[in-house]
């Protein structure tokens, strides 16, 4: 199975309001809830692609219970979340029905104790031997050491399990130094890591910092991959308008599923780009439409070159 | 004991953010939770005044569980909430730390089935014989008939328990027709009920519609009471700046506690005004400071006249 790690799981709540006016009172017209946190989103896409997937990370309190109940309803996703005392965070997306714009409010997450962090590491190491690949996703909750992803990357490598890291800031910087197989930063995360706003230069620099392969997601301009096997650029057929929520997580699922299927890089990028684009085009935030995805598979362009042997 | 009814209980969540900017993403710096809904707020103030108080209404889902756990920590409040399948609503108050202003997002609440509404009525009727007074507070959740408060007022009167109604809109209009002992509308609710923006005229009109006594809360201008025993106006010592959240609920608790203590109207109004003002002055939304309250008791002015016999 594929293992996804979400240390800062979330209950993602969406509120629709007729119009958001600061400093006034709003009656929410529609409330929807779903399990959130990048690794849980990645898992849902992997399961939809037919892969066996296990999710781990932390869960706590009443919100954690709701997340776990909602996960039970997600076919193909096995729940291996580790309990903590603090409550799983909520994220609130307030959608203004007039403009379609979203205002996001993210709670910081539970404070994880050193004992809870140790318990997680044990659970993670127990899961690695049966994992074909692992994705480490998202922000760290308070209390988890900033070098956490470096520890988890090293454990995966020791177990010879390919590991993809998708995070940002200092957690990414420290994690990259532990030499993950793939990182998937967006343009902003890549610039923050490397100091360069020029995607190709920044991607190459990120490899020098330790990542074996770097797949930079450049929004509507597709993906740029620099790997030991070569470098490629994948481009979706046309600039799509829609909700970018979950597009990066869909790309991670595309890369990871194609990796365990042992597909070459151009096919991995095609799949990741088609999934990501189908997610943007979907009317439901973070979901992708299978028909759109399959149609897009034939329309993604990949250009690039194989590294000379 | 005093009984308070909150059909649309809530988990009141407060988020502090450095500055609220619509259509951007915010990291919440502080999250606080407390049991909410007007009747629960009234109960907390009554308990702080030393009264035995029982709360009823609906509770459901993970949010309802949290509300009940938090209630367990409120000394002197007995939980007699009735379970429903739908989840108790959340209300989110987003406090902008830069301006101090609050943006409010209120979920509509669970949809209550006819069976659940019947179960509540039975539980309510079982509680009435041991109640010295009852407060019916706040909005109706979806599914509860708009005439609900009229039914609950009639049941209280049949059991000879004094009943105070604090709601708005059509629920208030229907409830008033069932002849509650006291209603406590604010200026806006009173204008909506009567069509008049002139407080004295509107208060008198509200009595003609069925309320035995009307106590209009006029914000920083205090309370205006028109009753069979006479009419009075109470005024706080000075215009206080602060957070008006819970001021109306504190006034209800003041009126109700003084009623069961058989105090005359001027003393009821003094207590309600002092509690309400102490709540506005409190740094914690919805709480009151006992010292401030006791000091204010001596500084509220009540003027008025007793009805000629």
Automatic annotation (TrEMBL), chains A, B:
CDD domains: FruK_PfkB_like (cd01164). It comes from the Bacteria. Residues 12-283 form the Carbohydrate kinase PfkB domain. InterPro entries: Carboh/pur_kinase_PfkB_CS (IPR002173), PfkB_dom (IPR011611), Ribokinase-like (IPR029056), Tagatose/fructose_Pkinase (IPR017583). Keywords: ATP-binding, Kinase, Nucleotide-binding, Transferase. Belongs to the carbohydrate kinase PfkB family. This is 1-phosphofructokinase family hexose kinase.
């Amino acid at each position: 199975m594929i293992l996804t790690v979400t240390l800062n799981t979330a209950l993602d709540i969406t509120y629709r309001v007729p119009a958001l006016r600061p400093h006034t009172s709003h009656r929410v017209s529609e409330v929807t809830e779903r399990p959130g946190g990048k690794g849980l989103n990645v898992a849902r896409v992997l399961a939809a692609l037919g892969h066996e997937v296990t999710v781990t990370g932390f869960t706590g309190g009443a919100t954690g219970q709701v997340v776990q109940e909602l996960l039970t309803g997600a076919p193909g996703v096995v729940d291996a979340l580790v309990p903590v005392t603090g409550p799983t965070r909520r994220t609130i997306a307030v959608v203004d029905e007039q403009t379609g714009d979203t205002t996001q409010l993210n709670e910081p997450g539970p404070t994880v104790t050193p004992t809870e962090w140790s318990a997680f590491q044990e659970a993670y190491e127990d899961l690695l031997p049966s994992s074909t690949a692992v994705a480490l996703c998202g922000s760290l909750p308070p209390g988890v050491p900033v070098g956490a992803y470096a520890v988890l990357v090293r454990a995966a490598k020791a177990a010879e399990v390919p590991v993809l890291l998708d995070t940002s800031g200092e957690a990414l910087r420290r994690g990259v130094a532990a030499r993950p197989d793939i990182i998937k930063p967006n343009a902003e995360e890549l610039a923050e890591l490397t100091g360069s706003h020029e995607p190709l230069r920044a991607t190459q620099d990120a490899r020098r910092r330790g990542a074996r392969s770097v797949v930079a997601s450049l929004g509507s301009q597709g993906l740029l991959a620099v790997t030991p096997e070569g470098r490629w650029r994948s481009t979706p057929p046309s600039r799509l308008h829609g909700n970018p929520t979950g597009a990066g997580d869909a790309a991670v699922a595309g890369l990871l599923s194609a990796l365990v299927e042992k597909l070459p890089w151009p096919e991995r990028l095609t799949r990741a780009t088609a999934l990501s684009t189908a997610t943007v085009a979907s009317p439901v935030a973070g979901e992708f439409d299978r028909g759109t995805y399959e149609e897009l598979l034939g329309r993604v362009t990949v250009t690039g070159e194989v590294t000379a042997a």
